[in-house]
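As agreed, record copied across for absentees:
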Amino acid sequence: MAVAAQDRDGISAPQQNQSVGWALASLSLATLLSSLGTSIASVGLPSLMQTFGASFQAVQWVVLAYLLAITTLIVSAGRLADMFGRRPLLLGGIALFTAASVLCGLAPTLSLLIAARTVQGLGAALMMALTLAFVAETVSKERTGSAMGLLGAMSAIGTTLGPSLGGLLIAGLGWRAIFLVNVPLGLLTFALAWRALPARNKNAQAVKGKFDTMGTALLAMTLAAYALAMTLGWGHFGALNIGLLAATALGIGLFAVAQKRVRNPLVQLASFRDPQLSASLVMSLIVATVMMATLVVAPFYLSRGLGLDAAMVGVVLSTGPLVSTLSALLAGRLSDRFGAHRMMVAGLASLTAGTLLLSLALTRLGIASYVVPITVTCFGYALFQTANNAAVMTGVGTGERGVISGLLNLSRNLGLITGASLMGAIFAVASAGAREGTGQDVLSAAAAARGMQVTFETATALALVALLLALFSLRFASRPQPGIA
């Protein structure tokens, strides 16, 4: 008599697959929410300036407050989840994000809106830190790459959808709608997560000990100092930026000392002795820095270098996120089939080739001079990101998944912040140099092309560094381990 296959807990295989499917659906929506929260707000800045009669420097904190909250709290969020359980923390993060979205939409003043965005960022930090950890817990190792690819695709969809959806909502319903749209999505995500996400495994042990309050405060202040140093002045470094970088260096030293002395540290510094983990975190930071150049520099190249109007610039810019979305799903399957470390190398090779093509900035080729290289670049990015996440999360013990997931997201966020400042400054200097002696105060086509070339020459050099690290990681992963036949 044929009997449905049962696992050790008496759950049939079809039931297990259905449960995993619902869990992935809730994690995908959480990923979409957090990325949408980042991208949709920027399109509303002009409306906020007009509504509140504020300067751009003031309204930019609507975006910065969200990013700073995520950056400073994401590692702590992962640690709390390892200690007290991922399900309640993720549900709390979704609820906090949704409630803060209501407050954002109803905020009567700019100050209250910025405060609500900070709270929203805290909810996003919980969601971002725990989605990767939950994938490693709910999906078999053989399917981890595909699951990571799905989350990568949802993140890219959120990034792509934000500006266009935000523009439509502002045009039809006003700026408040770009925050209130998160409310029904948040409620749906909460309902799915409540239904599908598993409670802590009975055999799993919670991380023991007290929460490292001192380490959390030091890390938060250090990361905030770095983020502010990279964002204030938009690439024009002054005394304040230098002072904040000095505070960052001091904070890193104090944090390291504190982690060695406390019994239950926020971050196990010994984890960084693992060369593969350290290499993965550094590669993630470098790649995010490189990819930020496409967001900071490309609009100037397309509008000034190629002479495209605003509508066409928006259409062409959507090429990159669209390629990333479509590639992420394929990247997951390739990672499962050929191995995460091999796909990391392949992804970074494609990324390097794409940035090299972008550095040529052949304006005579028109739109193709951007679309073809960005397609190669974004395919490589999607392949690397998926494979890197899969490689790290499958090699981490249950008790550290939350904090390692937080570190992965932290490295990416720091890369985005660094890229926005560094690549923007390189473009500004290179394009200004091309204008010297021409008497032009506006950015000419030649200056935009020169800025593009220099910026992506730098990006190519950084991508090569990441590729060398990936080759090192692949060689280390292929080395026979002691004691293993």
Remarks:
- The chain has 19 helices and no strands.
- The longest helix spans residues 401-435.
- The mean pLDDT is 79.
